[in-house]
Amino acid sequence: MKVLIPVKRVLDYNVKVRVKSDESGVDLANVKMSMNPFDEISVEQAVRMQEAGTATETIAVSIGPDKAQETIRTSLAMGIDRGIHVKTDAEVEPLAVAKILKSIVEAEGIDLVILGKQAIDDDSNQTGQMLGALMDWPQATFANTIEKDGDNLTVGREVDGGIQTVKVSLPAIVTTDLRLNEPRYASLPNIMKAKRKPIDAKTPEDFGVDIAPRLSTLKVAEPAGRSAGVKVEDAAELVAKLKDEGVI
Ligand code: AMP
Questions:
Q1: Which of 2, 79, 128, 147 has a beta carbon 3.0–4.6 Å from 175's, enabling a disulfide?
Q2: What is the pLDDT of residues 56-92, one digit of tens each?
Q3: Candidate from 7, 105, 123, 127 with most ligand 1 atoms within 8 A of CB, to mutate
């Protein structure tokens, strides 16, 4: 089973997001960028499948600027076999990402694509589903467990109030949720080994995909600041205050 793992380079989840003064977007100058956390979980899943002998080859792909190669290298250091870098300095929306992924899936003869459930920068939660539709493949989103049995995958999905178990036939699309696994840290020898693993260089034009945006961002604003709290003497005063302010 050949597995493709799309990995996105995003603002590190520990970084405090700053909005540009003209409210046109998030300030990305001189801030730490990392692999999207859900994509780390996908990488871990693919490496475990390879270790268990269920995946025969694992390929990471990232669509983004030159620095996206670092994100691919991180996945190679975790155990992925090889990478594909689709270079663009433009912001690429989920539909264009899904179209590029479709071309790669077809060219490489992929059996399973494991994506993150969402990228923490755009919070779209769209790419996996769009790829599922473009390929006309079954999809299991928000995976909490993944088991291969024959030509099927049994996937436990995180849904409100519990886990829903579904069976999908391969080839398929899976998107990962937070509790699927705990991604490993790359060891130093594996970081060194990853430097010699191949990364193919491509562009969106190689796949004939028009990446022109379909949306325009009108405004990005910081959340409203929280007002200072007040201390109350006892429960009775708290209840009175809450009533006063129409909370209860
Ligand atoms: P989104 O639909 O933008 O929330 O992203 C969901 C998932 O799609 C991510 O977790 C990645 O696995 C994949 N993805 C989105 N954008 C890219 C990109 N530029 N390069 C590689 N993978 C991506």
A1: 128
A2: 999 999 999 999 999 999 999 999 999 999 999 999 9
A3: 127
